[in-house]
Structure formats: structure tokens, C-alpha cells
Automatic annotation (TrEMBL):
It is found in: Nucleus. Keywords: Metal-binding, Nucleus, Zinc. One of its GO terms (biological process) is DNA-templated transcription. SUPFAM superfamilies: RNA polymerase subunits. This is Uncharacterized protein. Gene3D superfamilies: RNA polymerase ii, chain L. InterPro entries: RNAP_P/RPABC4, RPABC4, RPABC4/Spt4. Residues 1-16 have a biased composition (Polar residues). GO terms for cellular component: RNA polymerase I complex; RNA polymerase II, core complex; RNA polymerase III complex. GO terms for molecular function: DNA binding; DNA-directed RNA polymerase activity; zinc ion binding. Belongs to the archaeal Rpo12/eukaryotic RPC10 RNA polymerase subunit family. It comes from Immersiella caudata.
Amino acid sequence: MSREQYTIPTGSQQTFGAGGSSGREYAADSVGTVMYYTCGDCAVRVPLEKGAPIRCQKCGARVLYKERTKRCVAAHPMVQFEAR
């Protein structure tokens, strides 16, 4: 199939980046959402919003680790995420 023959798939399932979306729908849902990361150098908990520079506010390091999920490990020993 050539590039000219390709049509963008459309469907009822809305996902970020699918169907030629510019990401505006995703950005509207995540306004004010804060994710917490742990600094790799000083182990401080760093809050980051979407679009914020990835840098520790205490030591200035750029290595941040995402915190583990808060899901109950006793009930579900394995947490599986779908990646595309």
C-alpha cells in the first residue's frame, strides 16, 4: 500500500495520538495533574506537571524515577500495563 492510498483509521475508541489527534483532548484532561517522581541523586520527592522541565528542585539533577503504582500488591501480585 502506498502512502497516498493510506487512510487514517477512525473509530469510537479515542486514544492519545490516534486518528490524527493533535493531543488537545489529552491536554484538556490533564490540566492541573501533578505526577510525583524521585530524584536519582538526593532522593527527594519531586512534583512535576505536564510540560514542566525535568529537573530536581533541590539539587538540579535531571535523573528522575517514576514512583511505583499505588495499587494493592496483596490482591494483585502482578500489575500489567498495555503499551503501544
